[in-house]
Amino acid sequence: MGDFNLALVIVAIVVCVIVFLFNVYLLVNYQHPDDANQAYFPKFVVVLGLSVAAISILMLPADVANRQACRHAIYNGACNLTLPMKDLWLAIYILDAVLVFFVIPFAMFYYEGDQDKSVGKRIKSALIWVVTTAIVCALVLGILYGLIGEVDFTVRHLSSTTTSFPNSWDFSSGQPCIGGSHQCSAYSANAASEKTWTMRTTFPEYVVALATIVGSVLFSIFGGVGIACLPLGLIFSFIRRPKAVITRSQYIKEATELGKKARELKKAADALHQEERSGSKGRKWRKNVKAVEKELLQLEEDVKLLEEMYPQGEKAETSWALTVLGYLAKLVLGILGLIVSVAWVAHIVIYLLIDPPLSAFLNEVFIKLDDIWGLLGTAAFAFFCFYLLLAVVAGAMMLGLRLVFITIHPMKWGGTLMNSFLFNVGLILLCSISVIQFCSTAFAYYAQATAAQEIFGHTLQSLRGIKYLYKYNVFQIAFIVLAGLTFVYYAAFGWRRKKPSGRFQLSS
User: Fold this and answer.
1) Are 71 and 93 contained in the same domain?
2) Is Isomerase tagged as a keyword (predicted)?
3) How confident is the model over 209-224, as pLDDT tens digits?
Protein backbone atom coordinates (compact mmCIF):
# COMPACT_ATOMS: atom_id res chain seq x y z
CA MET A 1 0.00 0.00 0.00
CA GLY A 2 2.89 2.35 0.66
CA ASP A 3 3.99 2.01 -2.96
CA PHE A 4 0.46 2.85 -4.11
CA ASN A 5 0.38 6.00 -1.97
CA LEU A 6 3.80 7.08 -3.23
CA ALA A 7 2.58 6.66 -6.81
CA LEU A 8 -0.52 8.72 -6.00
CA VAL A 9 1.64 11.55 -4.62
CA ILE A 10 3.87 11.48 -7.72
CA VAL A 11 0.82 11.56 -10.01
CA ALA A 12 -0.65 14.46 -8.03
CA ILE A 13 2.58 16.49 -8.35
CA VAL A 14 2.90 15.78 -12.08
CA VAL A 15 -0.75 16.72 -12.71
CA CYS A 16 -0.34 20.01 -10.81
CA VAL A 17 2.70 20.92 -12.93
CA ILE A 18 0.85 20.04 -16.16
CA VAL A 19 -2.19 22.09 -15.08
CA PHE A 20 0.03 25.11 -14.31
CA LEU A 21 1.85 24.92 -17.66
CA PHE A 22 -1.43 24.48 -19.57
CA ASN A 23 -2.92 27.56 -17.88
CA VAL A 24 0.17 29.61 -18.77
CA TYR A 25 -0.32 28.42 -22.38
CA LEU A 26 -3.97 29.54 -22.29
CA LEU A 27 -3.02 32.94 -20.91
CA VAL A 28 -0.33 33.55 -23.50
CA ASN A 29 -2.58 32.60 -26.43
CA TYR A 30 -5.83 34.20 -25.24
CA GLN A 31 -4.43 37.52 -23.97
CA HIS A 32 -5.06 40.72 -25.90
CA PRO A 33 -2.04 42.30 -27.68
CA ASP A 34 -2.55 45.43 -25.56
CA ASP A 35 -1.75 43.39 -22.42
CA ALA A 36 1.49 41.92 -23.76
CA ASN A 37 4.51 42.57 -21.50
CA GLN A 38 2.40 44.29 -18.83
CA ALA A 39 -0.37 43.64 -16.25
CA TYR A 40 1.78 40.95 -14.63
CA PHE A 41 -0.13 40.83 -11.33
CA PRO A 42 -3.53 40.17 -12.99
CA LYS A 43 -1.84 37.51 -15.14
CA PHE A 44 -0.43 35.81 -12.05
CA VAL A 45 -3.90 35.85 -10.45
CA VAL A 46 -5.43 34.37 -13.63
CA VAL A 47 -2.93 31.48 -13.77
CA LEU A 48 -3.27 30.84 -10.02
CA GLY A 49 -7.06 30.95 -10.15
CA LEU A 50 -7.36 28.62 -13.14
CA SER A 51 -4.89 26.22 -11.51
CA VAL A 52 -6.83 26.18 -8.23
CA ALA A 53 -10.11 25.57 -10.08
CA ALA A 54 -8.68 22.70 -12.15
CA ILE A 55 -6.92 21.12 -9.18
CA SER A 56 -10.06 21.35 -7.04
CA ILE A 57 -12.02 19.44 -9.70
CA LEU A 58 -9.27 16.81 -9.93
CA MET A 59 -9.15 16.45 -6.14
CA LEU A 60 -12.44 14.54 -6.06
CA PRO A 61 -11.10 11.70 -8.27
CA ALA A 62 -7.90 11.86 -6.19
CA ASP A 63 -10.03 11.56 -3.05
CA VAL A 64 -11.63 8.40 -4.45
CA ALA A 65 -8.21 6.96 -5.34
CA ASN A 66 -6.89 7.92 -1.91
CA ARG A 67 -9.76 6.03 -0.27
CA GLN A 68 -8.98 2.95 -2.35
CA ALA A 69 -5.33 3.06 -1.24
CA CYS A 70 -6.13 1.37 2.08
CA ARG A 71 -9.23 -0.57 1.06
CA HIS A 72 -7.28 -3.83 0.89
CA ALA A 73 -4.69 -3.00 3.57
CA ILE A 74 -2.87 -6.03 4.95
CA TYR A 75 -1.17 -4.32 7.91
CA ASN A 76 -2.26 -1.90 10.64
CA GLY A 77 -1.66 1.78 9.98
CA ALA A 78 -1.73 1.52 6.17
CA CYS A 79 -4.41 4.23 6.00
CA ASN A 80 -2.15 6.60 7.96
CA LEU A 81 0.09 6.81 4.90
CA THR A 82 -2.65 8.23 2.67
CA LEU A 83 -2.99 11.89 1.73
CA PRO A 84 -4.69 14.17 4.32
CA MET A 85 -7.57 14.92 1.95
CA LYS A 86 -9.82 16.75 4.42
CA ASP A 87 -7.06 19.25 5.26
CA LEU A 88 -6.29 19.63 1.56
CA TRP A 89 -9.98 20.23 0.75
CA LEU A 90 -10.29 22.96 3.38
CA ALA A 91 -7.01 24.60 2.32
CA ILE A 92 -7.92 24.66 -1.39
CA TYR A 93 -11.38 26.07 -0.73
CA ILE A 94 -10.25 28.71 1.72
CA LEU A 95 -7.77 29.78 -0.98
CA ASP A 96 -10.65 29.67 -3.48
CA ALA A 97 -12.77 31.99 -1.31
CA VAL A 98 -9.88 34.42 -0.76
CA LEU A 99 -9.24 34.61 -4.51
CA VAL A 100 -12.93 35.10 -5.40
CA PHE A 101 -13.86 37.69 -2.80
CA PHE A 102 -10.61 39.63 -2.32
CA VAL A 103 -7.72 39.03 -4.73
CA ILE A 104 -9.64 38.95 -8.02
CA PRO A 105 -11.79 42.03 -7.19
CA PHE A 106 -8.60 43.93 -6.25
CA ALA A 107 -6.94 42.91 -9.52
CA MET A 108 -10.04 43.95 -11.52
CA PHE A 109 -10.40 47.32 -9.76
CA TYR A 110 -6.70 48.00 -10.30
CA TYR A 111 -6.73 46.94 -13.96
CA GLU A 112 -9.92 48.88 -14.80
CA GLY A 113 -8.78 52.01 -12.95
CA ASP A 114 -8.37 55.27 -14.83
CA GLN A 115 -5.12 54.93 -16.79
CA ASP A 116 -4.50 58.66 -16.38
CA LYS A 117 -4.11 58.20 -12.61
CA SER A 118 -0.81 57.23 -11.02
CA VAL A 119 -0.12 53.64 -9.95
CA GLY A 120 -0.36 54.64 -6.29
CA LYS A 121 -3.83 56.17 -6.72
CA ARG A 122 -5.07 53.12 -8.63
CA ILE A 123 -3.79 50.80 -5.87
CA LYS A 124 -5.37 53.03 -3.22
CA SER A 125 -8.74 53.04 -5.02
CA ALA A 126 -8.67 49.25 -5.45
CA LEU A 127 -7.69 48.72 -1.81
CA ILE A 128 -10.57 50.90 -0.58
CA TRP A 129 -13.07 48.74 -2.46
CA VAL A 130 -11.48 45.46 -1.35
CA VAL A 131 -11.05 46.47 2.32
CA THR A 132 -14.68 47.63 2.43
CA THR A 133 -15.75 44.29 0.94
CA ALA A 134 -13.54 42.40 3.42
CA ILE A 135 -15.04 44.23 6.43
CA VAL A 136 -18.59 43.58 5.25
CA CYS A 137 -17.86 39.90 4.52
CA ALA A 138 -16.12 39.42 7.88
CA LEU A 139 -19.05 40.96 9.77
CA VAL A 140 -21.62 38.90 7.90
CA LEU A 141 -19.64 35.67 8.33
CA GLY A 142 -18.97 36.33 12.01
CA ILE A 143 -22.60 37.15 12.81
CA LEU A 144 -23.96 34.17 10.87
CA TYR A 145 -21.41 31.79 12.37
CA GLY A 146 -22.18 33.01 15.88
CA LEU A 147 -25.96 32.76 15.44
CA ILE A 148 -26.54 29.72 13.22
CA GLY A 149 -23.13 28.14 12.67
CA GLU A 150 -24.32 24.76 13.92
CA VAL A 151 -25.25 21.43 12.33
CA ASP A 152 -28.29 19.41 13.34
CA PHE A 153 -27.91 15.67 12.86
CA THR A 154 -30.97 13.45 13.18
CA VAL A 155 -30.03 10.37 15.24
CA ARG A 156 -31.82 7.58 17.10
CA HIS A 157 -31.35 7.24 20.86
CA LEU A 158 -30.78 3.52 21.44
CA SER A 159 -30.34 1.63 24.70
CA SER A 160 -30.25 -1.89 26.06
CA THR A 161 -30.53 -3.51 29.48
CA THR A 162 -27.57 -5.06 31.26
CA THR A 163 -27.17 -8.72 32.12
CA SER A 164 -24.57 -11.06 33.52
CA PHE A 165 -21.75 -12.02 31.20
CA PRO A 166 -23.01 -15.22 29.48
CA ASN A 167 -21.04 -18.32 28.68
CA SER A 168 -22.14 -18.06 25.03
CA TRP A 169 -23.71 -15.38 22.82
CA ASP A 170 -27.02 -16.07 21.12
CA PHE A 171 -27.80 -13.31 18.62
CA SER A 172 -30.18 -13.49 15.67
CA SER A 173 -32.41 -11.23 13.59
CA GLY A 174 -35.13 -11.79 16.15
CA GLN A 175 -32.79 -11.29 19.12
CA PRO A 176 -30.35 -8.47 18.23
CA CYS A 177 -29.72 -7.24 21.80
CA ILE A 178 -28.69 -8.45 25.23
CA GLY A 179 -31.45 -9.02 27.71
CA GLY A 180 -34.33 -9.20 25.25
CA SER A 181 -34.60 -5.42 24.70
CA HIS A 182 -34.77 -4.34 21.07
CA GLN A 183 -33.95 -0.67 21.70
CA CYS A 184 -30.43 -1.18 20.36
CA SER A 185 -31.83 -1.91 16.88
CA ALA A 186 -32.32 1.23 14.76
CA TYR A 187 -34.71 -0.65 12.46
CA SER A 188 -37.09 -1.76 15.22
CA ALA A 189 -36.81 1.36 17.40
CA ASN A 190 -39.95 3.51 17.64
CA ALA A 191 -40.26 7.03 16.23
CA ALA A 192 -39.89 8.57 19.68
CA SER A 193 -36.26 7.44 19.74
CA GLU A 194 -35.34 10.06 17.08
CA LYS A 195 -33.30 12.89 18.54
CA THR A 196 -31.50 15.92 17.14
CA TRP A 197 -27.80 16.00 17.85
CA THR A 198 -26.49 19.57 17.57
CA MET A 199 -22.84 20.53 17.33
CA ARG A 200 -20.96 23.63 16.17
CA THR A 201 -19.15 23.27 12.87
CA THR A 202 -15.63 24.60 12.36
CA PHE A 203 -15.27 28.11 10.92
CA PRO A 204 -13.38 26.96 7.75
CA GLU A 205 -16.16 24.45 7.00
CA TYR A 206 -18.75 27.20 7.52
CA VAL A 207 -16.94 29.53 5.09
CA VAL A 208 -16.85 26.73 2.51
CA ALA A 209 -20.56 26.06 3.08
CA LEU A 210 -21.62 29.68 2.51
CA ALA A 211 -19.37 29.99 -0.54
CA THR A 212 -21.00 26.81 -1.83
CA ILE A 213 -24.47 28.35 -1.43
CA VAL A 214 -23.48 31.45 -3.41
CA GLY A 215 -21.86 29.28 -6.06
CA SER A 216 -24.87 26.93 -6.14
CA VAL A 217 -27.20 29.79 -7.08
CA LEU A 218 -24.94 30.77 -10.00
CA PHE A 219 -24.34 27.12 -10.86
CA SER A 220 -28.07 26.37 -11.04
CA ILE A 221 -28.65 29.31 -13.40
CA PHE A 222 -25.57 29.23 -15.61
CA GLY A 223 -25.08 25.46 -15.42
CA GLY A 224 -28.71 24.71 -16.21
CA VAL A 225 -28.62 26.98 -19.25
CA GLY A 226 -25.13 25.85 -20.28
CA ILE A 227 -25.78 22.10 -20.09
CA ALA A 228 -28.19 22.59 -23.01
CA CYS A 229 -26.64 25.49 -24.94
CA LEU A 230 -23.08 24.08 -24.92
CA PRO A 231 -23.79 21.11 -27.25
CA LEU A 232 -26.76 22.67 -29.07
CA GLY A 233 -24.77 25.83 -29.77
CA LEU A 234 -22.10 23.76 -31.54
CA ILE A 235 -24.70 21.78 -33.52
CA PHE A 236 -26.64 24.85 -34.65
CA SER A 237 -23.38 26.62 -35.47
CA PHE A 238 -22.86 23.86 -38.02
CA ILE A 239 -26.41 24.32 -39.32
CA ARG A 240 -25.87 28.09 -39.74
CA ARG A 241 -22.44 27.67 -41.35
CA PRO A 242 -21.59 29.47 -44.64
CA LYS A 243 -22.45 27.06 -47.45
CA ALA A 244 -20.26 28.54 -50.20
CA VAL A 245 -17.66 31.22 -50.99
CA ILE A 246 -19.07 34.62 -52.03
CA THR A 247 -17.89 36.66 -55.03
CA ARG A 248 -15.37 39.51 -54.86
CA SER A 249 -18.04 42.16 -55.54
CA GLN A 250 -20.15 40.83 -52.67
CA TYR A 251 -17.10 40.87 -50.42
CA ILE A 252 -16.30 44.52 -51.27
CA LYS A 253 -19.90 45.55 -50.64
CA GLU A 254 -20.05 43.81 -47.26
CA ALA A 255 -16.59 45.02 -46.20
CA THR A 256 -17.50 48.61 -47.02
CA GLU A 257 -20.69 48.33 -44.98
CA LEU A 258 -18.82 46.83 -42.04
CA GLY A 259 -16.20 49.60 -42.18
CA LYS A 260 -18.94 52.21 -42.06
CA LYS A 261 -20.59 50.53 -39.08
CA ALA A 262 -17.23 50.21 -37.31
CA ARG A 263 -16.71 53.99 -37.58
CA GLU A 264 -20.20 54.61 -36.17
CA LEU A 265 -19.46 52.25 -33.31
CA LYS A 266 -16.18 54.01 -32.55
CA LYS A 267 -17.95 57.36 -32.46
CA ALA A 268 -20.52 55.98 -30.00
CA ALA A 269 -17.75 54.50 -27.80
CA ASP A 270 -15.87 57.83 -27.75
CA ALA A 271 -19.05 59.63 -26.69
CA LEU A 272 -19.58 57.16 -23.83
CA HIS A 273 -15.96 57.61 -22.76
CA GLN A 274 -16.48 61.39 -22.60
CA GLU A 275 -19.59 60.87 -20.45
CA GLU A 276 -17.57 58.63 -18.13
CA ARG A 277 -14.90 61.30 -17.71
CA SER A 278 -17.55 63.91 -16.90
CA GLY A 279 -18.89 61.67 -14.13
CA SER A 280 -22.36 61.04 -15.58
CA LYS A 281 -22.45 57.25 -15.18
CA GLY A 282 -26.13 56.65 -14.59
CA ARG A 283 -28.46 53.83 -15.54
CA LYS A 284 -28.85 55.13 -19.11
CA TRP A 285 -25.04 55.22 -19.53
CA ARG A 286 -24.67 51.61 -18.35
CA LYS A 287 -27.47 50.53 -20.68
CA ASN A 288 -25.74 52.24 -23.62
CA VAL A 289 -22.40 50.64 -22.71
CA LYS A 290 -24.10 47.24 -22.70
CA ALA A 291 -25.63 47.95 -26.12
CA VAL A 292 -22.27 49.04 -27.57
CA GLU A 293 -20.59 45.90 -26.19
CA LYS A 294 -23.22 43.73 -27.86
CA GLU A 295 -22.84 45.54 -31.16
CA LEU A 296 -19.05 45.26 -30.97
CA LEU A 297 -19.25 41.50 -30.42
CA GLN A 298 -21.73 41.14 -33.30
CA LEU A 299 -19.52 43.26 -35.55
CA GLU A 300 -16.53 41.05 -34.74
CA GLU A 301 -18.61 37.94 -35.53
CA ASP A 302 -19.70 39.49 -38.83
CA VAL A 303 -16.08 40.26 -39.74
CA LYS A 304 -15.06 36.69 -38.91
CA LEU A 305 -17.97 35.31 -40.93
CA LEU A 306 -17.07 37.52 -43.90
CA GLU A 307 -13.46 36.32 -43.77
CA GLU A 308 -14.70 32.73 -43.74
CA MET A 309 -16.99 33.33 -46.71
CA TYR A 310 -14.23 34.97 -48.77
CA PRO A 311 -10.82 33.47 -47.87
CA GLN A 312 -7.88 35.40 -49.33
CA GLY A 313 -4.18 34.86 -49.98
CA GLU A 314 -2.19 32.13 -51.63
CA LYS A 315 -3.75 29.44 -49.44
CA ALA A 316 -7.37 30.49 -49.88
CA GLU A 317 -8.52 26.99 -50.85
CA THR A 318 -6.74 25.48 -47.84
CA SER A 319 -8.33 28.10 -45.58
CA TRP A 320 -11.80 27.24 -46.90
CA ALA A 321 -11.14 23.50 -46.42
CA LEU A 322 -10.07 24.13 -42.80
CA THR A 323 -13.23 26.19 -42.26
CA VAL A 324 -15.37 23.30 -43.49
CA LEU A 325 -13.47 20.84 -41.29
CA GLY A 326 -13.85 23.18 -38.32
CA TYR A 327 -17.64 23.19 -38.68
CA LEU A 328 -17.65 19.39 -39.04
CA ALA A 329 -15.64 19.16 -35.81
CA LYS A 330 -18.23 21.37 -34.11
CA LEU A 331 -20.95 19.00 -35.27
CA VAL A 332 -19.12 15.95 -33.91
CA LEU A 333 -18.29 17.64 -30.60
CA GLY A 334 -21.85 18.93 -30.35
CA ILE A 335 -23.30 15.43 -30.78
CA LEU A 336 -20.88 13.99 -28.19
CA GLY A 337 -21.66 16.87 -25.84
CA LEU A 338 -25.38 16.32 -26.30
CA ILE A 339 -24.95 12.68 -25.26
CA VAL A 340 -23.07 13.78 -22.12
CA SER A 341 -25.69 16.46 -21.33
CA VAL A 342 -28.56 13.98 -21.70
CA ALA A 343 -26.67 11.52 -19.48
CA TRP A 344 -26.23 14.23 -16.83
CA VAL A 345 -29.90 15.26 -16.89
CA ALA A 346 -31.07 11.64 -16.82
CA HIS A 347 -28.73 10.86 -13.93
CA ILE A 348 -29.99 13.85 -11.89
CA VAL A 349 -33.60 12.78 -12.39
CA ILE A 350 -33.03 9.04 -11.82
CA TYR A 351 -30.59 9.25 -8.91
CA LEU A 352 -31.27 12.56 -7.13
CA LEU A 353 -34.86 13.68 -7.71
CA ILE A 354 -36.61 10.31 -7.46
CA ASP A 355 -36.66 8.90 -3.92
CA PRO A 356 -35.67 6.12 -3.64
CA PRO A 357 -33.40 6.26 -6.73
CA LEU A 358 -34.43 4.10 -9.66
CA SER A 359 -30.79 3.24 -10.35
CA ALA A 360 -27.24 4.28 -9.46
CA PHE A 361 -26.78 4.85 -13.25
CA LEU A 362 -23.48 6.70 -13.83
CA ASN A 363 -22.13 5.49 -10.48
CA GLU A 364 -22.38 1.92 -11.77
CA VAL A 365 -20.79 2.96 -15.07
CA PHE A 366 -17.74 4.40 -13.27
CA ILE A 367 -17.40 1.33 -11.07
CA LYS A 368 -17.50 -0.98 -14.10
CA LEU A 369 -14.92 1.18 -15.89
CA ASP A 370 -12.68 0.92 -12.82
CA ASP A 371 -13.00 -2.86 -13.05
CA ILE A 372 -11.77 -2.71 -16.66
CA TRP A 373 -8.79 -0.49 -15.79
CA GLY A 374 -8.00 1.14 -12.47
CA LEU A 375 -8.02 4.78 -13.64
CA LEU A 376 -10.63 4.53 -16.41
CA GLY A 377 -13.59 5.16 -14.10
CA THR A 378 -11.70 7.93 -12.31
CA ALA A 379 -10.90 9.62 -15.65
CA ALA A 380 -14.56 9.40 -16.75
CA PHE A 381 -15.58 10.80 -13.36
CA ALA A 382 -13.21 13.77 -13.76
CA PHE A 383 -14.48 14.37 -17.33
CA PHE A 384 -18.12 14.63 -16.20
CA CYS A 385 -17.10 17.11 -13.48
CA PHE A 386 -15.10 19.23 -15.94
CA TYR A 387 -17.99 19.17 -18.40
CA LEU A 388 -20.20 20.85 -15.79
CA LEU A 389 -17.65 23.68 -15.45
CA LEU A 390 -17.62 24.17 -19.23
CA ALA A 391 -21.42 24.27 -19.14
CA VAL A 392 -21.30 27.03 -16.50
CA VAL A 393 -19.01 29.18 -18.67
CA ALA A 394 -21.16 28.54 -21.78
CA GLY A 395 -24.31 29.50 -19.85
CA ALA A 396 -22.71 32.71 -18.56
CA MET A 397 -21.70 33.67 -22.12
CA MET A 398 -25.19 33.04 -23.47
CA LEU A 399 -27.01 34.96 -20.74
CA GLY A 400 -24.43 37.75 -20.87
CA LEU A 401 -25.37 38.44 -24.48
CA ARG A 402 -29.10 38.60 -23.70
CA LEU A 403 -29.56 40.07 -20.21
CA VAL A 404 -28.82 43.72 -19.47
CA PHE A 405 -27.74 43.20 -15.83
CA ILE A 406 -25.02 40.63 -16.73
CA THR A 407 -21.74 42.09 -17.97
CA ILE A 408 -20.31 40.61 -21.15
CA HIS A 409 -16.82 39.14 -20.74
CA PRO A 410 -16.15 37.05 -23.87
CA MET A 411 -13.08 34.83 -24.18
CA LYS A 412 -11.46 35.21 -27.60
CA TRP A 413 -8.27 33.63 -28.91
CA GLY A 414 -5.66 36.39 -29.04
CA GLY A 415 -8.15 39.08 -27.99
CA THR A 416 -9.12 38.66 -24.32
CA LEU A 417 -8.47 41.58 -21.98
CA MET A 418 -7.38 40.89 -18.42
CA ASN A 419 -10.64 42.12 -16.87
CA SER A 420 -12.56 39.52 -18.91
CA PHE A 421 -9.99 36.89 -17.90
CA LEU A 422 -10.37 37.82 -14.22
CA PHE A 423 -14.17 37.84 -14.37
CA ASN A 424 -14.35 34.39 -15.94
CA VAL A 425 -11.72 33.00 -13.55
CA GLY A 426 -13.75 34.31 -10.60
CA LEU A 427 -16.90 32.74 -12.02
CA ILE A 428 -15.13 29.41 -12.56
CA LEU A 429 -13.65 29.45 -9.04
CA LEU A 430 -16.96 30.31 -7.41
CA CYS A 431 -18.84 27.63 -9.33
CA SER A 432 -16.10 25.01 -8.93
CA ILE A 433 -17.01 24.64 -5.24
CA SER A 434 -20.61 23.98 -6.21
CA VAL A 435 -19.57 21.62 -9.01
CA ILE A 436 -17.62 19.52 -6.50
CA GLN A 437 -20.52 19.54 -4.03
CA PHE A 438 -22.94 18.66 -6.83
CA CYS A 439 -20.73 15.84 -8.10
CA SER A 440 -20.13 14.45 -4.61
CA THR A 441 -23.92 14.28 -4.18
CA ALA A 442 -24.71 13.01 -7.68
CA PHE A 443 -21.99 10.35 -7.47
CA ALA A 444 -22.36 9.61 -3.74
CA TYR A 445 -22.34 5.86 -4.36
CA TYR A 446 -19.05 6.02 -6.29
CA ALA A 447 -17.43 8.63 -4.00
CA GLN A 448 -18.63 7.17 -0.70
CA ALA A 449 -16.43 7.30 2.42
CA THR A 450 -14.30 10.15 1.03
CA ALA A 451 -13.28 13.38 2.74
CA ALA A 452 -15.40 15.32 0.22
CA GLN A 453 -18.46 13.32 1.29
CA GLU A 454 -17.79 14.27 4.91
CA ILE A 455 -17.52 17.99 4.14
CA PHE A 456 -20.05 18.43 1.34
CA GLY A 457 -22.41 15.63 2.29
CA HIS A 458 -23.03 15.25 6.01
CA THR A 459 -21.92 18.69 7.29
CA LEU A 460 -23.24 20.92 4.50
CA GLN A 461 -26.60 19.17 4.20
CA SER A 462 -27.16 19.34 7.97
CA LEU A 463 -26.14 22.99 8.43
CA ARG A 464 -28.79 25.05 10.21
CA GLY A 465 -30.67 27.41 7.86
CA ILE A 466 -29.19 25.82 4.73
CA LYS A 467 -30.11 22.15 4.94
CA TYR A 468 -33.63 22.69 3.57
CA LEU A 469 -32.24 23.86 0.23
CA TYR A 470 -30.64 20.43 -0.13
CA LYS A 471 -33.41 18.48 1.59
CA TYR A 472 -35.92 19.59 -1.05
CA ASN A 473 -33.44 19.50 -3.98
CA VAL A 474 -33.97 23.20 -4.79
CA PHE A 475 -30.78 23.59 -6.82
CA GLN A 476 -31.22 20.32 -8.74
CA ILE A 477 -34.81 21.20 -9.69
CA ALA A 478 -33.78 24.69 -10.84
CA PHE A 479 -30.97 23.13 -12.88
CA ILE A 480 -33.34 20.71 -14.66
CA VAL A 481 -36.02 23.36 -15.30
CA LEU A 482 -33.55 25.82 -16.85
CA ALA A 483 -31.99 23.04 -18.94
CA GLY A 484 -35.44 22.14 -20.29
CA LEU A 485 -36.35 25.76 -21.07
CA THR A 486 -33.02 26.30 -22.85
CA PHE A 487 -33.54 23.16 -24.93
CA VAL A 488 -37.00 24.43 -25.98
CA TYR A 489 -35.51 27.83 -26.84
CA TYR A 490 -32.81 26.31 -29.05
CA ALA A 491 -35.31 23.96 -30.70
CA ALA A 492 -37.49 26.97 -31.58
CA PHE A 493 -34.89 29.62 -32.46
CA GLY A 494 -31.43 28.00 -32.52
CA TRP A 495 -31.51 27.17 -36.24
CA ARG A 496 -31.90 30.84 -37.18
CA ARG A 497 -28.88 32.97 -37.99
CA LYS A 498 -28.15 35.24 -35.05
CA LYS A 499 -28.94 38.92 -35.54
CA PRO A 500 -27.95 41.82 -33.31
CA SER A 501 -30.45 43.97 -31.47
CA GLY A 502 -29.17 47.16 -33.14
CA ARG A 503 -27.98 48.21 -36.57
CA PHE A 504 -24.67 46.42 -36.88
CA GLN A 505 -25.27 43.36 -39.07
CA LEU A 506 -24.40 42.04 -42.50
CA SER A 507 -26.70 43.33 -45.18
CA SER A 508 -29.03 40.76 -46.64
Assistant:
1) yes
2) no
3) 777 788 888 888 888 9
